[in-house]
Amino acid sequence: MNRRLVLRRHTRGVATFALVFATLLATQGAIVRATGSGLGCPDWPLCHGSITPPPDDIKAIIEYTHRVLAGIGGLLILTAAVLVLRSRGGSWLFRGSAIALIILLGVQVLLGAAAVLTELPAWVVTAHLVSATTLIGLLTFIVVQCSMQLPEPLKARPHVMGLSRLSGAAVIAALLAIGVGGYTSSSHAGRACSGWPLCGNAMWPIDSQGIGIGPIVHMTHRMVALVVLVLLAMLAWRLRKLRDSYPFAARLGIIASHLVVLEVLVGAANAMSLTNEIITAIHSFLAQWVWIVTLAIAVVVWSMHRENVGSRADVDS
């Protein structure tokens, strides 16, 4: 078997494992936030001055478990990045994603330390989550690039530019929804609206003090989630109509549309349960997979668009 093909398969396998592990790590991070365990170990990198957490402190154990899992995940991500850099024949963007992984991994470690040492300000915790989500996005890009078999160069792909823009908008909205959701959780605004879809009996509840910041943050997250739902529904519908030209992307579109509906329902349950820890974890897990599948669609469509542009250039020359 071709050595390059073997290396590409190994890269895909490691990157896929790292991707799945990273989603579980992000979910466990949501449990840390939901259980109020972020300062279970108030120092860093030690925990109460020791290399192990106190055995009778459940919050310290939850926080320290997150750190241990983060260390394992970091090693997996570094391994995937090294394999990508060893690959030959990949695009500059493919190899650049490995360098970005390494840099962002360092940023993620620093943000994790800063979150603890500064006692969990909402914006630092949110930056930590967005950084982790971006790492997951880079791993998704690598997995899709390793998996794709590009179409024949001269095969027509109708409406590819429109699909590129729509999928790009969905990617941005999905990342924004996760970021705003992280801020909603870390600023304790998750319990500001126990009703659904309204906040109490109104869209923006007003009391004697005006509109509170908690309801504004909470309802902003719901509005962004609604935008994601609409964009993914539009994208799935367009891909379904073009499924003969985009079979893989069309299948991903179906998955994404189902995932985002499930995510909205779990989000409603999360609000009405006043951020139950288990429901919060499921909500976070589904959010990451909505992001992953949405980004995978965008990468597939973008790759086909890039191939089409190259093919036309070859024909014109």
Highlighted features:
317 residues; single chain; mainly alpha; 2 domains; 8 helices; disordered C terminus
So how many helices? 8
Helix content range: over 70%
Which structural category fits the helices and strands?
mainly alpha
Relative strand content: under 5%
Distance between the termini: 35 Å
Q: Calculate Rg over CA atoms.
A: 21 Å
Outline the biggest β-sheet: none
Which stretches are low in confidence, meaning pLDDT under 50 for 5 or more residues running? Answer: 150-156, 309-317
- Overall body shape: flat
* Number of strand elements: 0
Structure in words:
It contains 8 helices and no strands. The chain folds into 2 domains: 148 residues; 159 residues, no CATH class. It is 74% helix and 0% strand. It is mainly α and 317 residues long.
Topology:
Elements: H1 3-34, H2 58-86, H3 92-117, H4 122-147, H5 160-186, H6 213-241, H7 247-272, H8 277-316
Helix pairs in contact: 1-2, 1-4, 1-8, 2-3, 3-4, 4-5, 4-8, 5-6, 5-8, 6-7, 7-8
Briefly characterize the structure.
The chain is mainly α and 317 residues long.
